[in-house]
Amino acid sequence: MSHHERVRAVYDDAAPAYDALLPDLRVEQPVDRAMIGAFCDEVLATSDHRVLDAGCGNGRMIQELRSRGVSPQGVDLSSGMIGQARRREPEIDFRVADLRHLPYADASFGGVIAWYSLIHYDYPELAEALTELARVTAPGGILLTGFQSGAGAREIVNAYGTSGTMTAWLHPPQELGSIAERSGWTTTATTLRAPVMEPYGQGFVLARRAG
Asked: Do 94 and 153 form a contact (C-beta atoms < 8 A)?
């Protein structure tokens, strides 16, 4: 089983428990919400308010995005998580796909939010995913990604009460911003906040689609 097949299997198995544990953004800190707000404000300043929640999981971000005035769709590697998302938000277009191979035409969105969904991609896969996110975003469109800050790989054991193990990677914000720059984006902000309930600092990169 490949790494991404294992990640898919773990999230498929964990989907009901994940949905019960994280039904919305209640665990996000004020800085996290501020970054989401800045992203939505920048999307609303463009002519295209369609947003792709890339790695949407159970759809817990959708209500927040809608409340801030953008028009979201969602995509995730895990069909189990997409099942939860469709149950939660039945009127939203959700699809199953790898972030490196998205089922959308070029320039389909005015913004893309990858909220802790790039953590399972190491370089060069991370660059491939960021390049694909750029492809489906209109020139001038906005990217926000959140992730655990640090260096190297970490193993997530018994994820969300399952028996599965999967690998995630840590990246310093400046490093992820640099990879984004080489993948079709112009970085506009990098932010690092200290851990609150987590063992790692949390990184955020806000960027604009080049061209």
From this structure: no
